[in-house]
Amino acid sequence: MHKPTLGIIGGGQLGSMLATSAKKLDIKTVIFCDDINAPAQNFSDVFIHGNYNDKNKINEFIEKVDVITFEFENIPFETLNEINKSKPVLPKPSVNRIIQHRLAEKDFINKLNIRTTQYTSIESKSEIETVQNLLPGLIKTVTLGYDGKGQHRVNSIKDLDHLNIDFSKQYILEKLVKLKKEFSIIITRFGDKKYEVYEPIENFHEDQILKYSIIPADLSEKILKQSKLWATELSEALKYIGTLCVEFFLDRNNNLYVNEIAPRVHNSGHLTINAYNVSQFENHVRAVCGLEQIQIKKICNAKMKNLIGDQINEYRKKKFSKNEFFFDYLKKEVKLKRKMGHLTILKK
Ligand code: AMP
Q1: Most exposed residue of 11, 45, 162, 282, measured as fewest CB within 10 angstroms of its CB?
Q2: Whether this model's pTM surpasses 0.85
Q3: What is the Å distance from ligand 1's center to 342 Cα?
Q4: Model pLDDT for residues 318-340, shown as the tens digit of each residue
């Protein structure tokens, strides 16, 4: 069988891990990224540096590949749609149009009768005064926010006086959930009703950044079933091809909510590299390149620790046991709150 060359937009750690998995499957990768220092160039076959609106560079990229995917969801829909006219983009661009907009995403989820936090669109300060039933809440930018960026906590209307929110942008106000747990489900969809679903992964955040992920997640059978069902329903409704992550909240009364969908491989799934026979990255490559679907099997329980900022320096010098797997993303600069690497510890 002719193996396609895979184009990946974005050159961070997710791009690196996708390229590494592709290599294992004998698939060539071309990374396109706007960062000249993109770490994924250390792992891909070809690297193209260019802005995401540079038509010439995009054409150079398109010519070199057979199928295109991406490692982050905030590429403009128009760009992906244009590319899709020449070579297939998977998951398809319409998925991004929904998911990169928090309101469209939540409307879409609710239409499927899947619960999200309560929310409303906010375009001015005075609008917040009319929806005080959603306080305490979080104000989030509708587009372009991750790891808590672009988010403000509002306990009462008084907080708005010192929050300095730029209302030239559109926001969503979400009621704060009293969280008992956060977890995620990673699913790779290959086609109609054909998917591999990883078991729920329990996630621990600090300052809204993921610190640890653990399997097995400590969840009741009922929540386990419900969350798996919702993850498959979401991927089916999106007619998604590739790996997708659904992030869940469980509140103190055991109510389940979908927080958000990441239309890509996800940080919480890094432990699948060592804990499963087929990782989320390999499955993504398999699905978008039309390769065989292999039934996934857990090999071991695991804990993944993100190495953030200068934590990496200590780990670069460390010796590891046989059950510990250290990943250095080879980022040129250590920055505060930047994900620099991770460690996966396999457990019986
Ligand atoms: P997000 O970027 O929306 O995924 O939010 C990042 C993190 O902020 C989540 O993983 C939660 O820890 C926290 N968070 C976001 N929205 C809410 C909410 N409505 N209620 C409670 N915590 C939240």
Answers
A1: 162
A2: yes
A3: 22
A4: 999 999 999 999 999 999 999 99
